Amino acid sequence: MSRKLQYFDVNGYAEAVRYMLHYGKLEFEDIRYKRDDWPIKSVKDALPYGQLPIYEEDGRVLSQSLAIARYVAHEVGLLPSDPWEQAVVEAAALNCYDFVKKIVTLMLDPSKIEENKKNIDEAVEFYLSRFEKELKTGNGYFGGKLSWADFILVGMIETTNLYLKGSIEKNYPTVTALISKIYSLPGIKEYVAKRGPYVLNL
Ligand SMILES: N[C@@H](CCC(=O)N[C@@H](CS)C(=O)NCC(=O)O)C(=O)O
Questions:
Q1: Which among 48, 23, 82 is positioned nearest to 56, based on CA atoms?
Q2: 63 within 8 A of 49, measured Cβ to Cβ
Q3: Domain spanning 83-183: which CATH class is it, in words?
């Protein structure tokens, strides 16, 4: 089977998918575009909604990062089989997205970062304290055992850290432990070592 994931050379909306593909040891073409080169007209025009990430499997095309993540999770055994459990972890993944969208909105104007610092700190506290509580209840995982929502959280925290130049998880031990657990999983450990840290070119 041929698999292809196209995104920018950053974590963002694609890193959780990359992690899951490596975790499942599924071979894929990891195509990355440089922000400076974007938009590449021939690529953008061929995208169903003009945006990345895009996932292709044997010529079939899937857009929307959460739909891609959920599908790949199924392929690698990270999607619970029980419908209620599926909904619980999907809600967690959506909460992670709400968190990042809130931060992005607050950061939209980089010249206002200082002015917005208080609001950003409050948003981090609001969401991270809730993620911490939910993970604690679930034995360290959103759904009681490792699922795709845990990967989404790690990808989103990484991305937020990259933009905020910090470690937003540092006061949240269960969140911190989950990040370490995911980084040390077979397949991901090797990928992270090879990938190295991301740098932001804005
Ligand atoms: N809801 C979409 C959002 C996708 C999105 O916003 N992609 C951005 C990068 S994170 C993009 O492609 N930007 C470049 C463009 O719009 O030309 C998803 O989750 O996949």
A1: 48
A2: yes
A3: mainly alpha
Atom 17, ligand 1: which residue's CA is nearest?
Answer: 51
What are 122-166's pLDDT values in tens digits? 999 999 999 999 999 999 999 999 999 999 999 999 999 999 999
pLDDT per residue as tens digits for the range 14-33: 999 999 999 999 999 999 99
Could you tell me which of 148, 161, 150, 149 has the C-alpha nearest to residue 197?
161
- For the cut 80, the answer to whether the pLDDT of residue 3 exceeds it is yes
166 C-beta closer than 6 A to ligand 1: no
> What was the pLDDT predicted at 112?
73
The CA–CA distances, whole Å, from 44 to 6, 7, 73 equal 11, 11, 26
- Ligand 1 contacts CB of residue 65 (under 6 A): yes
- Give 3-77+187-195's CATH code, choosing from 3.40.50.300, 3.40.50.1820, 3.40.30.10, 3.40.50.720: 3.40.30.10
